[in-house]
Amino acid sequence: MPFDHNDHYHRLLLRHVPSGASTALEVGCGTGKFARSLAGAGLDVDAVDPAADVLTVAKALGSPGPGRISYRQADIRSVALEPGHYDVISCLASLHHVPFDTVAALRDALAPNGVLLVLGLAKPGSVADRARWAAAVPGNVVARALVRVAEELGGGVDALPSPPVRAATMSLAQIRREAVRLLPGSRVRVLAFGATCSRIAQPERP
Ligand SMILES: C[S@@+](CC[C@H](N)C(=O)[O-])C[C@H]1O[C@@H](n2cnc3c(N)ncnc32)[C@H](O)[C@@H]1O
Fold it and tell me: Which residues form the Methyltransferase domain (predicted)?
C-alpha cells in the first residue's frame, strides 16, 4: 500500500484507548484497518460503513483477534446507538462525510470513561492553515517514496480497494468552534502530514 497518513496515526490513536476498554465503534471503517488494530488490542468492534465493496474486503480479512469484529453496511446516521455503551468510538477520515453534529450521537453513545477519537480533515481557512498544509506536503511525498521503496524491496504487496473519499468541508477554526459546542472538554490537535486529531473523554459517572 502507498503511504497513508491515516494508517500512520493508528499507534497514536491506540495510545488513547482507556485501559480495560472492551467495546468499540469504528465509524467509516473502509477496509477495516483500524477495526483490526482495535481488535488486536483486545476490543470487540462494531464497524460501520455504507460502501459495499470495501466492506467485502474488510469481512474477508476477518479479525486478528483477540477481539471480534462485527461489520455492518450502514450510514452511521441511521444506526440506533445505545446510549453509554462504547468505551471507544473512532472516526478516521470519515467524520467529514457526515454533518459535524453527528458527533452528538457518538458522544452520547460513549460509556463512562469512554473516548471519542477523530482523525480528521480540515480545509485551509486562514493563511496560517495554508502555510501549515504546505509544510506538510514534502513530508507526505518523502514518506510515500520511502514506503514505496521498502515495498519494492520486499517484493511488493497487493493493493486493497480505496474507500470513498470526500474533500474536507470545515476549516480548523470551524472544527474547534463546533467541538467546543458539541464536545465540551475535547482537545483538537494539528498533526504532521496535515491531519487533525480530536479526542473527547467522557467523564466518569458517579
Ligand atoms: C476516506 S475513507 C476512510 C476509511 C478508513 N477509516 C481509513 O482510515 O482507511 C472514508 C470512509 O467513510 C465512509 N463513509 C462515508 N459516509 C459515511 C456514513 N454516512 N456513515 C459511515 N461511514 C461513512 C466511506 O464509505 C469511507 O469508507
Answer: 25-114
Ligand 1 binding site (Cβ under 6 Å of any ligand atom): 6, 27-30, 33-34, 48-51, 54, 75-77, 92-94, 97-98, 163-165
76 CA closest ligand 1 atom index:
20
Q: Which three cell numbers stand for residue 201?
A: 473523554
Q: How many A from CA of 153 to the centre of ligand 1?
A: 31
Half-sphere exposure of 87 (CA within 13 A, CB side): 15
Domains within the chain, CATH numbers bracketed: 5-123+163-201 (3.40.50.150)
Interatomic CA distance for residues 38 and 78, integer angstroms: 23
Q: What is the 3-state secondary structure (H, E, C) of 7-41?
A: HHCHHHHHCCCCCCCCEEEEECCCCCHHHHHHHHC
pTM of the model: 0.89
* Residue nearest atom 12 in ligand 1 by C-alpha distance: 28
For residue 119, give the ligand 1 atom closest to its CA: 8
Amino acid (one-letter) located at 67? G
160: its cell numbers: 486493497
Q: What are phi and psi of 174, to 5 degrees?
A: -65, -40
Return the pLDDT at 202. 64
Q: What is the mean pLDDT of each run of 10 residues along the chain (206 residues)?
A: 69 94 98 97 98 96 96 98 97 96 96 94 83 74 72 70 88 94 91 65 55
- Return d(Cα 95, Cα 178) in angstroms, integer: 13
